[in-house]
Amino acid sequence: MGKSAAEILACLRDHVELLDGSGAGFCLAGPGRTAPEDAAAAPGQPAAPPAGLAADTRTAAEVERDVRSCKLCPLHRLRTNAVPGEGNWAAELMFIGEAPGRDEDLQGRPFVGRAGQLLRKIIASMKFREDEVYITNMVKCRPPENRVPHREEMEACWPYLARQVEIIKPKAIVTLGMTPTGHFVPGRTAMGQLRGRFADYRGIPLMPTFHPSYLIRNEGNREIRRMVWEDMKKVMALLGRK
Ligand code: URA
Ligand code: SF4
User: Fold this and answer.
1) Are the C-beta atoms of 53 and 30 separated by less than 8 Å?
2) Ligand 2 pocket, 141 CB below 6 A?
3) Pocket test for ligand 2, best of 153, 158, 179 (most atoms within 8 A of CB)
4) 232 in contact with ligand 2, CB cutoff 6 A
5) Is the pTM for the entire model greater than 0.85?
6) What integer pLDDT is reported at residue 9 of this predicted model?
């Protein structure tokens, strides 16, 4: 996944423009915070990797702190609270949703609204306590009208999630809906094709399944519920919970 020095500098330039609001460019620069002042101080110098591209060594507490004060994408402007995630930083199982909704934005906690209640029921049915798992989202601030986060927003927010996975080192990840699934399992496929089979993220088995909001919107559809439960049973089997 090597990037040339020129690409890295282009990313940082985009990032600086983004930060001062003059441009819309983003770049998936890999782990870590980018350091715009470094980029500005070294125009056209391909030499050593910019400081921001060094390995991300943030602790769990630092990730939470950074998320809560983050202004890396325009979603920060409309939020009440950023929502880093919650649960156990040594969890075997991690759930990744799309983005905070209204209730989550107001409370600063993930999955506390209607979809969240359903997710928490699913977790209990899987014989996990909530404090045994970790729950978070692709982006940590609520998009206006709960629209799907833009690609640029997901890219700006990605280092937080990447670091969360790196710290937690879960034995399994469940992605809820196509927004996180599309990020982890690239390609233009539908959930129907992706669910039910483990994908792989850096050696971690990753199970895509339908988002609980989708279950709510299709409340009468027992087939969708059955599929989600089938997917979760595979995760339980993998983690030795029957
Ligand atoms: N939907 C999500 O994807 N995430 C939340 O935190 C709440 C609803
Ligand atoms: Fe920062 Fe992510 Fe919130 Fe954007 S969505 S402001 S990148 S925490």
Assistant:
1) yes
2) yes
3) 153
4) no
5) no
6) 42
| C-alpha of residue 68 to centroid of ligand 2, in Å | 9
- Whether residue 182 is contained in a domain is answered as yes
| Residue whose CA is at the smallest distance from ligand 1 atom 7 | 111
In a domain, 23, yes or no: no
Q: Is 91 in the pocket of ligand 2 (CB under 6 A)?
A: no
3-state DSSP assignment of residue 79: coil
Residue 109 identity (one-letter amino acid):
R
Q: What is the mean pLDDT of each run of 10 residues along the chain (242 residues)?
A: 44 37 34 37 42 85 98 98 98 98 98 98 98 98 98 98 98 98 93 97 98 96 97 98 86
Q: Which residues span the domain enclosing 111?
A: 83-238
CA 223/CA 225 separation, integer angstroms: 5
The CATH code of the domain that includes 138 is 3.40.470.10
Q: Mutation test of ligand 1: which of 111, 140, 181 has the most ligand atoms closer than 8 Å to its C-beta? A: 111
Residues 30 and 66: their CA atoms lie apart, in Å, by 16
What pLDDT is attached to residue 224?
A: 97
pLDDT at 188: 83
Total structural domains within the chain: 1
Question: Is the CB–ligand 2 distance for residue 139 below 6 Å?
Answer: yes
Sign of CA dihedral 193, 194, 199, 205: negative
Q: Is residue 62 part of a domain?
A: no
Tell me whether residue 138 is in a domain.
yes
Which residue has the CA at smallest separation from atom 3 of ligand 2? Answer: 141
